[in-house]
Specification:
9 strands; disordered C terminus; five-stranded mixed sheet; two-stranded antiparallel sheet; 26 helices; 3 domains; mainly alpha
Length: about 625
């Protein structure tokens, strides 16, 4: 029995206690990871996730930084730039100023996230085709999880783990081990961050770049205040700050605005080194982003491509996705007055201050952070980083308000336009520090009550995450409007070089691997401008995003030749308008979906013996 006593001693007071705690923490993290994905995982819901993923696949397969999701606005910019550089394009089948008969250059996505995903696709065994039902990927004989979506979500959760580790060591550097552990546990229990990590969005990668940037600033501030290292360390850290700023901007363009509070921090808190460090950071940042901005300018005449117009989207000039779907937008409209942008700023800022800031991270730890702004910390590094955090918060509120588009309406909170989520780790660190400070000032009757109070605090903060395990499992299929088996089925009917049109072109490009254009603003003039002069449209695919849209505002008031009017005429008269070139539809799609094409393509499968009793070969959700 001596060996048992020795084991108990090592686990209770000896060196084995440390490994025992690490083992328990690892086990808890794994249980949380598997439990969340079994009960709450969903396939991609955000169009930005599918868009970036299909660009990444094109990169991985050697087609360059191209896209199969065609925006009419992108066509407009490419044609306009082509005319500026080479003159009016020649007519005829060989003319291709819109670059629809070749890999269409992507003008919407910054490069870093697609490049990271492309590397992932080179390493992991992605299975693009949905095969026969298999355990885990199917449920009750129906499609359930799409394997590439799941692998990308797992990669995002791995990045989330890196975020937690970086936050832990940053909190320990600024405060102590107690604050570090509490901050890490609060992050681990943050349901909003788990949702971002599994969404396919680049938010976790942006958080890593932001925390790396903060690390550089903290080390710069400490080295200026207490010099310990060689003279080259400060310029190297400033260059690192510029590099992480550039990487963040090339992941999400709006991240580049953080250059302003970074330069302010360096100019105010680095003493005699201020000019050298600020210039180094700015120079590295500009040199790193310049090649990509030049590439966009050469293609479209704009350094940020279609993202340049985010500030006018969602205004009265271009509501919803009207600008992105415009083949010939009037970008110099006389109604574009300053008041339009002021109204957008004020309206969205009001919503952000009322909804987003108070529940930052989906938690009331934000209240502790806001209260902690009134405290005077003795450590100058903590005070100065707090100033940077507050300045970043104020700036990101303005940037998010001006850059908010319809994407934020389609997928609330979990979208790439949510910039405030970048501040969650630091907000949790400062909130945890205030909580422990208040706890230290309490007169507890028993010392053992301290861990009980901390445990209760963590439980309350993490309740949104913990309650997931008491709820029924969420459906992994994001339907409506996305059902990958149907999308893959209709895309198998199409040849790879043929052009489709859809109200969910990002999903067709990602799940179906076919070139697909966003539905134009009308079913007449702009549709035929594409079909007759750019490239024939061989199929039209409409989902509940259109079929189940609002009758009055999105069908009737949209105009005589809108897609809503097209659907009404087709369903009421039970015939396609006589001038429309796509007139053949398979059975089984209406009334939830509509698929039109130029000939009975599905007959080819019947000839070779493939059954097509269901449009997708599987049950719909």
């Amino acid at each position: 029995m001596l060996w048992l006593q020795d084991l108990v001693h090592k686990l209770s007071v000896g060196p084995g206690l440390r490994y025992f705690k690490i083992g328990l923490i690892t086990l808890a993290v794994l249980l949380l990871f598997f439990g969340y994905n079994l009960r709450w995982y969903r396939n991609f819901a955000a169009q930005e996730a599918m868009d970036a993923a299909q660009v990444a696949r094109n990169l991985a397969e050697g087609r360059g930084f191209s896209t199969q999701f065609i925006r009419p606005l992108s066509i407009h910019l490419l044609k306009k730039r082509h005319e500026q550089r080479f003159g009016p394009a020649l007519s005829g089948p060989s003319a291709d100023p819109a670059r629809l008969r070749q890999p269409h250059p992507d003008l919407a996505n910054p490069p870093v996230w697609p490049c990271v995903l492309a590397g992932l696709m080179k390493v992991l065994p992605f299975q693009w085709e949905i095969g026969p039902p298999k355990p885990f990927w199917s449920r009750d004989g129906r499609f359930w999880r799409y394997q590439p979506d799941f692998l990308i979500a797992m990669f995002g959760q791995l990045l989330f783990g890196v975020v937690i580790v970086l936050t832990f060591f940053l909190a320990r550097q600024l405060f102590d081990a107690g604050v570090a552990w509490l901050s890490a546990v609060l992050l681990l229990g943050c349901e909003q961050l788990w949702a971002f990590s599994a969404s396919g969005l680049p938010t976790m990668l942006l958080l890593i770049f932001f925390l790396a940037l903060v690390w550089c600033l903290v080390l710069i501030e400490r080295e200026v205040r207490e010099p310990r290292r060689p003279g080259w360390v400060l310029p190297a850290l400033a260059a690192g700050a510029g590099l992480f700023l550039a990487l963040g901007m090339l992941t999400r363009y709006a991240f580049g605005w953080l250059l302003l509070p970074v330069l302010a921090f360096l100019l105010i808190f680095t003493g005699a080194h201020r000019a050298r460090l600020a210039l180094t950071t700015a120079a590295v940042f500009c040199l790193a982003v310049a090649p990509w901005l030049y590439r966009n300018y050469q293609l479209s005449g704009l350094p940020f491509g279609t993202a340049t117009f985010a500030v006018v989207e969602g205004t009265g000039l271009f509501p919803e996705y009207r600008l992105q779907r415009s083949l010939e937008p009037n970008l110099r409209t006389p109604d574009a007055r300053v008041g339009t942008f002021v109204f957008k700023l004020v309206h969205n800022t009001r919503q952000i201050l009322r909804n987003d800031v108070p529940k930052l991270g989906g938690s009331w730890v934000t209240a502790l952070f806001l209260t902690g702004l009134l405290l005077g910390f003795r450590n100058p590094a903590i005070r100065r980083l707090r100033y940077f955090l507050v300045a970043s918060l104020a700036l990101l509120v303005v940037v998010q308000a001006l850059g908010r588009t319809q994407l934020s309406q389609d997928t609330e909170e979990i979208n790439s336009e949510n910039l405030l989520v970048l501040l969650v780790p630091l907000v949790f660190v400062y909130g945890a520090s205030l909580f422990l400070l208040l706890l230290d000032q309490m007169n507890l009757l028993f010392a053992r009550l301290r861990p009980v109070i901390i445990g209760a605090f963590v439980t309350l903060v993490s309740l949104p995450m913990l309650l997931i395990f008491l709820m029924p499992p969420a459906p992994a299929v994001v339907y409506p409007p996305y059902y990958p088996p149907i999308i893959q089925q209709i895309c198998r009917w199409m040849r790879p070089e043929e052009l489709m049109m859809s109200d969910v072109p990002w999903a067709v490009a990602w799940y179906g691997q076919r070139q697909c254009m966003w539905t134009t603003l009308d079913a007449q003039q702009q549709f035929f401008a594409v079909n007759d002069y750019l490239k024939p449209v061989r199929a039209l695919y409409l989902t509940p995003a259109t079929m189940d849209s609002r009758f009055l505002t999105q069908w009737v008031r949209a105009g005589e030749h809108s897609w809503g009017s097209f659907i009404l005429e087709s369903m009421l008269r039970k015939e396609i308008p006589p001038t429309f070139p796509l007139r053949v539809a398979p059975a089984g799609f209406l009334p939830e979906q509509l698929f039109l094409t130029d000939w009975e393509r599905w007959r080819a499968e019947e000839i070779i013996g493939t059954p097509t009793s269901q449009p997708s070969g599987q049950k719909q959700p």
